[in-house]
Structures are given as C-alpha cells and as structure tokens.
Amino acid sequence: xxxxxxxxxxxxxxxxxxxxxxxxxxxxxxxxxxxxxxxxxxxxxxxxxxxxxxxxxxxxxxxxxxxxxxxxxxxxxxxxxxxxxxxxxxxxxxxxxxxxxxxxxxxxxxxxxxxxxxxxxxxxxxxxxxxxxxxxxxxxxxxxxxxxxxxxxxxxxxxxxxxxxxxxxxxxxxxxxxxxxxxxxxxxxxxxxxxxxxx
Length: 199
Prior knowledge:
globular; alpha+beta; single chain; 4 helices; disordered N terminus
C-alpha cells in the first residue's frame, strides 16, 4: 500500500481552512431545517349568545361552518345541540350538510365539532385553515356561516366573508358582524395563517 505524504503546499492551506471555519461559526447561516417553525394563531371568532328575556327560556341550537361561494361545506366548526330531532331547525346547516349525512347526529359523525348547548355568554371559535379531512384549503374566497335556532324562540343567520391567500393567511371582510336576534355580534379577534396539522 502506498502511503501519501502531504506536500508543503497542502500544509499551507491549513491556516486558510481554519479561518474559514471560524468565519462560518460567527456569521449567521441558513435556518436549520430542524428548528421549530413559528406558527401564527388560528383565526379566532368570538360568538356571542345574547341574554333574551323569555319564559321559559331554552338555550339555542347553534351551528358555525365554512363554505365555498358555491355552497359546498369545507369545514364544520361548531354544532351545539341537545336532541337530534331538532337539528332540522338549523335549516341552512341542515340543507347543506345535515340531511346528507344520515338521520341522526351519530351517523353524521359530528363528535369532532359538536357539544351541548351553551348559556348566554361569549365563546371563541377557532379555524386553522384546514377542511373537514384535515387538509389545507386552497387559496380563495370562503364564507363563515352562523346559524341559531331556539325552541319557542326565533332563528338567526349571519355570514362573514373571508379570503385565504396563497401563503395561507386568512383575512376577514369585516372585523365584526352585527347582532341579529338569537345571535349577538360576531367579532374577529385576529387573522391567522393556516396550520399544516389537524387541531
């Protein structure tokens, strides 16, 4: 085996390499791929259930969901209810989603976004830019829809246009939607970038 001996010219490069290594350690380099990315908070919508003077008073059924302008459901965010029988009273939600997913809440698979009715107060509803399957939605225009129906009470329906940019930033058309009957004002707390993982 032939053993190669470094020449004097080769040894002459060592100080240069050492200096280059020192400079590389001092100067900021490209972001490490393993570094955790900073995630923007989700789009936060504050939904208000108003105090209504009624005897007896029944808590309203409420649905919040996101659609395309063509009325295709993208994401169900909230379904607050008690009895399956009365889900049909959420007429808009039922028309575009409920009636196509079976005859009761269990068949609809609503566990991921449903819960019991709420008392009058303010509640935060988040959206992270994902659809019901957990995939990021394409850039474009969407509509957040809010619907409430109360036994022995009224029905209310509100809309909030939003837009998702190519970068995933969600922008609302207005910072607040005016109250209407069973729904108090809807407030946009902050815009956001969509996340790449399901909530």
